[in-house]
Amino acid sequence: MSARTLTPARPATTATRWSRRAAGAVAFAALLELLSRTGLADPEFLPPATEIAGRAMTLVLDPAFRAHALTSLLAWAIGLGLAAVIAVPLGLLLGSVPIIDAATRSVVEFLRPIPSVALIPLVALVIGTGLQLRVTLVVYASLWPILYNTMYGLRGVDPLAKESLRSYGFGPLSVLLRVSLPSSAPFITTGFRLAAGVALILTVSTEIVAGRGEGIGVFIFFAGIAVPARMADILAGVCWVGLFGVAVNALLVAAERRAFRWHHARLGEPG
Q1: Distance from first CA to last CA of the chain, Å, rounded?
Q2: DSSP calls for 141-208
């Protein structure tokens, strides 16, 4: 009996991965269509997938909905950018200076689990509603993934590389900028990618809870309190939020893989 030569499975190509994801999305849409058309789910509360998709395409042509979407994207982008500006330097400081990390750990661990939505009444009373409310809560929620990934990345820096640089007379700041920051950059970008999803969730959630001004969440809120509720509008708005989240994540993953191919190659991941 001849022995078979076992060859390792080849990693799926990008086209293959996307085709599988598309197939899963189509199957899910078909299931929703079947549930609604057969009456297993009440069409009043779960319209057919084709009706939701048609309404989603109609909303793109509606200037009022586009204004809602742009307002949400503005709050998302500003909040995410401010979170990165705050979290990266703070993470570098806490990850590089153990004394400061130990002194602030109890405060950080106390603040981190607090849900951002629970802070809506307090923030609204202090700074008011509108764009500033959404941006503040997005910053608060998005800060933690970037902060912790920055600190985690610093802990994984090769100590030999830092000692080698110190032996040539470089100070702590030079070691941080020349070794620690480049080595932890893949972890920081991963934290930013996670924070982008958190920021999107908080933007829409805050708009739904506050229910004022403009934004996709406000659009969904008023569609829900209408009599009767406009379920096609609600689900179409949710679909656009989900599609935007998928697109942003895909772009950030592609940029991360292109910028840090050496990191993914070391982990044995496909480029």
Answers
A1: 39
A2: HHHHHHHHHHHHHHHTS-HHHHHHHHHTT--HHHHIIIIIHHHHHHHHHHHHHHHHHHHHHHHHHHHH
The answer to whether the beta carbons of residues 210 and 120 sit under 8 Å apart is yes
Backbone dihedral region for residue 83 (phi beyond 0: left; psi -120 to 50: alpha; all else: beta): alpha
Amino acid at 188: I
Q: Distance (Å, rounded) from C-alpha 233 to C-alpha 193?
A: 28
**Low-confidence residues in the chain, pLDDT < 70:** 1-14, 211, 262-271
Global pTM reads 0.83
DSSP type of residue 180:
I
Q: Which amino acid is at 102?
A: A
Per-residue confidence (pLDDT) for residue 45, from 0 to 100: 85
DSSP state of 179: I
